[in-house]
Task: structure prediction
Amino acid sequence: MKKLIICDHPLIQHKVSLLRDKNTGSKEFRELVNEVSMLIGYEATRDLPLKEVSVETPVAIARTNVISGRKLAIVPILRAGIGMVDGLLALVPAAKVGHIGISRDKRNDNSVSVYYNKLPSDVASRDVILLDLMLATGASAIKAIEAVKQQGVSSVKLITALSCPEGVRAVHDQHPDVDIYTGAMDEGLNDELYITPGIGDGGDRIFGTK
Ligand code: URA
Result:
């Protein structure tokens, strides 16, 4: 319960530092997001169940392990989460991919709502890995977790490149069963609800929209 895993492998720390640099352009930023997501995904899939099988090698019969158990669904939160999908699919190519879009109403207390929800039809029988580049206030992640749980999903992990204590606390207050895997834990949020020091607007930097 309330598991927070800060994935501080040197490669992740190095790549997160490059993400932070305001002079990193969109092409390199996108590549780094993919790489960081894959490296964090490696940690997040460490507990996948295995089963023993027999494989005939050119030399002998080997008793060896393959992944078994429930299948995975990867669900990016639009829009920055989209930049993380390929990194996860490189690890688990058979996973299905859903999408959740969350909008924030700045005129109404920053309340969030789901404007797009397309999950695999068999998602209830899958373990979900939710992707969001930044865990800031946690409001989007909480809404997205609710949306997948409403479809009958019983196991959700959240992967983010960058988090802050406010976001982690908020998610774990509402969903203590959701394990959070992140590449770094920053100081907190500024007045505009950006993570500080952070990486700026992740979506804009991935898609070059600013
Ligand atoms: N979303 C972003 O893109 N950046 C932040 O710092 C917080 C939320």
Remarks:
- Residues 26-44 form the longest helix (19 residues).
